[in-house]
Amino acid sequence: MLSDILRQCVVIFALCAAGAVYTLVSGLAPRPWIAPELAPGEIRVSDARVLDAIWVDTRTIEAYEAGHIPDALFLSEDAWESGLFELMDLWLTAPRPIFVYCDTEQCGTSERIAARLREAVPEMEVYSLRGGWAAWQQ
Amino acid sequence: MAAVNSTRAWFLLIGRLLVSAAFILAALPKIQDPVAFAASVDGFRVVSGQLTLWVALFLPWLELIIGLGLLIPQIRLGSGLLIAFLLAVFIGLHLSAWGRGLDITCGCFSTKRSEAPPNYLWLLIRNSSLLGATLAILAGDWQSLRRGKETKKPAP
After folding, report:
1. How far is A78 from chain B (nearest CA, A)?
2. What is the value of ipTM here, to two decimals?
3. Chain A contacts of B31, Cβ < 8 Å?
């Protein structure tokens, strides 16, 4: 009985492997062993860590209070004006790149806020952190 | 007794078709867009980086094959066991994400991102029901196999 089940599982996993090969060959998915390219306006954690920048945290206030990148500024879309003024103060004192982050690659808030910042102050050099807070913690 | 067995067989068949359809329908959008599914996997914050892409590459095919396999006599027991295992893992992941207060996109039947917060209770009820149906199917298959083996035994 156990050998029957094992044999069935081998067949199932072999079919899965064939399916996964089809996905790769047909170009539906990038090769997992190749690091993905960055989208425009994104920056990798490894690059961001070594740069002097202003960090902007766009997660919830609870998440920010529980832990954030050192010296990161909390910026919420609900309190956009006050947050933007605070950020402008920092940036005008010492102009440098601004790195915006949210929870994970999936959250999307950082891309949205980065776009708003670029629109509000086109002189600012704004990037969204790829992988967000989750990537920073690794 | 024969009527009871017949009703039970019908229920098991319906359960088998439902579980099979659920897995096939869940797999198809993910196979078409593994990159979007990788983003959903990433949202659970259990695996990260390139491992996320590997999961997004294999898991949809596994779901499709075991969904179909539940209807194919040659691999239905293995498929049933893998479905039960996957459902238990999904339940664990949803409980864990709920406990951590994550704003996930389930990625269960669609790879599109939802603006609405996840309905964890519904996800848990749905997966638990599917798990219950799968366990009933497995029990039925197990009994059929045992009965088949007993009838094959030569009379003493």
Report:
1. 17
2. 0.86
3. 19, 23, 28
